[in-house]
């Protein structure tokens, strides 16, 4: 599967086999805060600009900034996820971004999502800080699971809450 938009903006795709639970133990918010800057550098070396495969999470909220008739947009859609186990309850654990090309390719998937929907995704980590983890989506699927998410889930990037995400128009 080719991903030209993110390949050109974020470099080549290097897939890693680590699962969310391993990442959380090694580089979750608590580990990063307790272990200090040297440990953070090790986490960045291991995960930053690498692509995680088949991670699963639940939609906590979403921002739709996509205007299909405009030219390419790097951050057309942002999805805030709750992972299991959670890293920062009641906050979202990580942020997924979709460029406009990826959003168009995954349009039917996006339309099927609501708050609490379970998704699986392949995504490249583009930002890793103590409390902020941002991934660029390469592929995403809606799964059968569902989780009731509280009405207000704030995170460090965003203060607007959506009870039922709406994608596209």
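^ structure tokens above, recovered residues below v
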């Amino acid at each position: 599967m080719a991903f030209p938009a993110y390949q050109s903006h974020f470099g080549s795709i290097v897939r890693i086999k680590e699962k969310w639970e391993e990442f959380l133990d090694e580089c979750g918010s608590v580990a990063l805060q307790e272990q200090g800057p040297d440990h953070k550098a090790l986490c960045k070396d291991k995960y930053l600009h690498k692509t995680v495969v088949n991670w699963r999470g639940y939609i906590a909220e979403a921002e739709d900034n996509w205007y299909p008739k405009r030219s390419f947009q790097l951050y057309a859609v942002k999805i805030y996820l709750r992972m299991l186990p959670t890293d920062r309850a009641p906050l979202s654990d990580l942020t997924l971004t979709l460029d406009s090309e990826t959003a168009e390719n995954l349009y039917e998937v996006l339309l099927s999502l609501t708050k609490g929907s379970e998704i699986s995704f392949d995504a490249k980590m583009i930002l890793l800080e103590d409390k902020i983890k941002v991934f660029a989506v390469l592929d995403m699927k809606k799964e059968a699971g569902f989780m009731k998410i509280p009405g207000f889930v704030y995170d460090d990037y965003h203060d607007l809450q959506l009870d039922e995400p709406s994608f596209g128009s």
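Confidence is low (pLDDT under 50) at residues 1-7, 156-169.
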